[in-house]
Amino acid sequence: MSTTTRAAVVESGGAPFTLTDVELAEPGPHEALVRVVATGVCHTDLGAASGGLPFPLPGVLGHEGAGVVEEVGSAVTAVAPGDHVVLSFTSCGDCRNCQGGHPAYCATWLPLNLIGGRRADGSSTISRDGQPLGGHFFGQSAFAQRALADERSLVRVDPDVPLESIAPLGCGVQTGVGAVWNVLKPRLGDTVVVLGAGAVGLSAVMAAALTPATGIIAVDRVAERLALARELGATHTVDAGAADVVGALAEITGARGVDGIVETTGNVAVLRQGVDALAARGTLVVVGAPPFGTEVALDVNGLLGGKRVVGLTLGDAETQSFIPALVRLVQEGRLPLHRLITTYPFADIDQAVRDMRAGKTIKPVLTF
User: Fold this and answer.
1) pTM score > 0.85 for this model?
2) Cα–Cα distance list, 222 to 199, 219, 358 (Å)
3) How many CA within 13 A on the CB side of residue 140?
């Protein structure tokens, strides 16, 4: 039997979010119906809503959900009704990367999460007045009071942790943290630079502060975000609007260069600055995503000193172990995620989007 729920629908690229009733399909064998308690708003949601991604519209977005399981499909074993869950990306579970513990690089990741709008078998999860809508966004489409989620999107979490405090773990936070822990893996004495002090960048700063790195440098144009980065563990900050970034990083490191960089802005000019600032054998992790087809020019000879440029999706995280670890760090106060979050009632989703675009809030979290 289908379920009627209130959802934020985007009718076409660039249109606002409109609250309306939609119908969710009956859970399939490997799906669960989740009552959404909170969901983060991410720049990927805004990119799809603007028409910048080929996600089918009208549709329902949202991919940082957290809630309580109400119903499970016949083959679901990972969760049960009443469980508290964080919703993250989905994956096939069968391909080489999924089997190898790297589900963020699933062979079918793009259609299952970002651009398909339907289940793997082509069926729709969400409809309105009998007409299918784009759904199944990251296996969840959490901008709704209830979400039909893939079992592989669900991560069971401690029910004592307020769900609004951990909803962003499903995407932005695990991306920033994973860039540091899973790719850069700082050693004692390393210097880590974070380009862009938004939600992903500040998550990377917090993650670096929990490693042996002795230098953590945040780069941004917004003074308030740089100040917050200092409070969250940055040892140095650079105002990109007032300084030559490459020169400033050379000065801070004594001209040695930077060991690891997390590039979150999606700006190719900033990416190039980061590559130029790397030390020999340094690594830059590309997290920020510009429009499809964007290219960047690099000095090839400058790479011959062993520099590495690595692309990253969702922190290369294995969610079933990674997210519960992050939940524990939030619970213990060692990952002060609350410093990034501003909560909004679900009905105020458009205000949350406006504030995010204007830089008034770092990580909006919608509550239900």
Assistant:
1) yes
2) 13, 9, 12
3) 34
For residue 250, give every residue at least 6 positions away whose Cβ sits within 8 Å of its Cβ, in sequence order, or none: 257, 277
**Alpha-carbon distance 7 to 4, whole Å?**
9
Q: Quick one: pLDDT at residue 293?
A: 85
Each residue's pLDDT tens digit, 288-342: 988 888 899 999 999 999 999 999 999 999 999 999 999 999 999 999 999 999 9
Sole residue written with tokens 């729920």: 5
Could you give phi then psi for residue 86, rounded to 5 degrees? -100, 135
CA-CA distance, 170 to 168, in Å (whole number)?
A: 5
Residue 238 · residue 249 · CB < 8 Å: yes
Instruction: End-to-end CA distance of the chain: give it in Å, rounded.
Output: 23
Q: Cα(37)–Cα(35) distance, rounded to whole angstroms?
A: 6
Cα dist from 65 to 42, 142, 319, whole Å: 11, 5, 14
Query: What residues have CB less than 8 Å from 24, skipping those under 6 apart?
Result: 2, 3, 4, 5, 33, 125, 126, 144, 146, 147, 148
Q: What is the mean pLDDT of the chain?
A: 96
- Give the whole-angstrom CA distance, residue 329 versus residue 172: 16
The residue with tokens 């994973």 is: 178
Average of pLDDT values for 41-46? 94
Euclidean distance between CA atoms 166 and 146, whole angstroms:
18
Residue 368: partners with Cβ closer than 8 Å, 6 or more residues away: 35, 36, 37, 38, 145, 346
Q: In this structure, are residues 263 and 287 in contact, taking their beta carbons and an 8 Å threshold?
A: yes
DSSP summary character for residue 44: H
Q: What is the DSSP string of 10-39?
A: E-STTPPEEEEEEEEPPP-TTEEEEEEEEE
Q: Three-class SS of residue 144?
A: strand
b/e map 146-178, b = 16+ CB within 10 Å: bbbbbbbbbbbbeeebebbbbbbbbbbbbbbbb
